[in-house]
UniProtKB/TrEMBL annotation, chain A:
SUPFAM superfamilies assigned to the protein according to its UniProt record, in alphabetical order: EF-hand
PROSITE patterns xrefs: EF_HAND_1, EF_HAND_2
Cell compartment(s), UniProt: Cell membrane; Cytoplasm; Nucleus
Molecular function via GO: calcium ion binding
Domain of life, per lineage: Eukaryota
Key words of the record: Calcium, Cell membrane, Cytoplasm, Lipoprotein, Membrane, Metal-binding, Myristate, Nucleus, Phosphoprotein, Protein transport, Repeat, Transport
This protein's name: Calcineurin B homologous protein 1
Residues covered by the EF-hand domain: 110-145, 151-186
Calcium found in the keyword field: yes
Family listed: Belongs to the calcineurin regulatory subunit family. CHP subfamily.
InterPro entries tied to this protein: Calcineurin_B_homologous, EF-hand-dom_pair, EF_Hand_1_Ca_BS, EF_hand_dom
Keyword Cytoplasm among record annotations: yes
From TrEMBL, chain B:
Gene Ontology BP, a term: triglyceride biosynthetic process
Location in or out of the cell: Membrane
All copies of domain Phospholipid/glycerol acyltransferase, residue ranges: 243-354
GO MF term list: glycerol-3-phosphate O-acyltransferase activity
Short name of one Pfam family: Acyltransferase
Protein source organism: Oryzias melastigma (Marine medaka)
Protein name: Glycerol-3-phosphate acyltransferase 4
Keyword Lipid biosynthesis among UniProt keywords: yes
Classification via InterPro entries: LPCAT1-like, Plipid/glycerol_acylTrfase
PANTHER family associated with the record: GLYCEROL-3-PHOSPHATE ACYLTRANSFERASE 4, PHOSPHOLIPID ACYLTRANSFERASE
TM regions (residue ranges): 20-43, 157-175, 181-201
Similarity section: Belongs to the 1-acyl-sn-glycerol-3-phosphate acyltransferase family.
Amino acid sequence: MGSRASTLLREEEIEEIKKETGFSHSQITRLYSRFTSLDKGENGALSREDFQRIPELAINPLGDRIINAFFPDGEDQVNFRGFMRTLAHFRPVEDNEKNKNVSNTEPLNSRTNKLHFAFQLYDLDRDDKISRDELLQVLRMMVGVNISDEQLGSIADRTIQEADANGDGCISFTEFMKVLEKVDVEQKMSIRFLH
Amino acid sequence: MDLFFNPFDNLLCVLLGISFTVWFTLLLVFIIVPAIFGVSFGIRRIYMKTLLKIFEWATLRIERGAKEKNHPLYKPYSNAIIAKEPTSLEEEIKEIRRSGSNKDLGSTPEFEMSDIFYFARRGVESIMDDEVTKRFSAEELESWNLLTRSNNNFQYISLRLTVLWGLGVLIRYGFLLPLRVTLAFTGVGLLVFLTSVVGLLPNGRMKSFLSEKVHLMCYRICVRALTAIITYHDSENKPKNGGICVANHTSPIDVIILASDGCYAMVGQIHGGLMGVIQRSMVKACPHVWFERSEVKDRHLVAKRLSDHIQDKSKLPILIFPEGTCINNTSVMMFKKGSFEIGATVYPVAIKYDPRFGDAFWNSSKFGMVNYLLRMMSSWAIVCSVWYLPPMSREEGEDAVQFANRVKAAIARQGGLVDLLWDGGLKRAKVKDTFKEEQQKLYSKMLVGTQEDRSRS
């Protein structure tokens, strides 16, 4: 018997995920199919190795940081709910949603939450601020061996100088948002589904 | 007591004897004899058409069942799930910066915190849908073909459909499977026996002629053992002696499919067990290129033996699968350049399976060989198309890799497959770091390149 039959999503679960993330029914089933195909151990959860098996992700300079975003502190397995919750950040913002105010909490794909996702890629120790050291480390990941330490250091210094409003030498989330206030985050951090 | 059992026993024996005879006669007349002469009664095609009609009906029933319950149906799409723009790293990052720039248009920023958006989005896109990992598992079907292994909409099956499915199981496992296993044993057994016999003859025209006939006959029996319905296109381009035949690889059955229509010299590693016995007896009848396990690693030795073989015009064309591993027949992955360096004429062949009747892809990490063959023999049929493409040679100024890519593109185009640059070896191995380094270099140029412009101005 195919293992797919026994691991089909229940309708109640699909409804819950729909409410939480805003994905449509067909998008959720499709992503579930993707989740199960990545889950080589067939235990209903993905580990970091499962992500690293994706070649296009493995060659992304920030691949490890992105994988890390799926694993909230300390854990090394992510289930389908967690998987969807993280992917929901990249759902496009529909126009009619801006008017709707269904729940009190902000939707996962709001501009602020998208920016927060990007912020956490920089914030290595999750202390809600980007220090010079953290910025340097992430820059090093993005450029590899092609830029010298001094040059990279001056780039980092310049960036912090421009962004740091309260002079503490680190970039907080508010300062981060201020620097990027003109960027079209909704479009650049969204992935469009074909159906 | 004796009187009671004897006539009953006799009757049973007679009945069994008659049914066996009938069975074997049917087998002989309808399957083995046509295989020997290479003709076909057309039974398999009628079978194929009937099956298609039944599958369509089954899919309609499932759709109706889903509509009644008011649930959307799971529809697999072999194309992409998400929209991916084919823009380059440079273009995209420039666009992001432009939209957020509050500086003058004159100065170009060297680093912006928003640059990370590009990498984040590309990364999450590849998590949602990537081009490579889906090639290593079976393709999803749009309509149901009455095999449990390929169904995602299990809960919408009505009683009628279940009965039909049950009938299908009975036919497949009770009738088709034993028939096919018998044929398979016959085919393989005959191959081993007859090639050994032919091997006793002295080398010469008679031997090659007989060897050809023997190989073809046994492969044809094996084709029928799988109920393979093959359509050959453009047979005028069939590979000739001294050439190399190159094809995309989906399963070990590819060999049987190609070899039942022409004679090839096989290339491969010598195995132990049954495979080894078959290999050793085949090479008695005509020269194949078998390597010991230790020799496989030595690229020069392999290249030398292959080029020696093709230079001898009396020897058959070599059959090679340059992908090196089985891919799921939706795409063609990187061709290893070894066979394209030898300098022979390359005869490309495209093989495309129709997945509705049985998925031929061998997922070697999931199923062993025996398990795979059993699955094959209990599917409805293996339906495929084979295209013989016109021969290609390496052109002036083209290196082996470019030549390989050119051949690969031709095969992909003909078979309707996606042409990928990724290495099929990624099924098991990790991707090389050089690709990541390329990306890093590209991005660094964006940061540092602008500094150079500044110092110049």
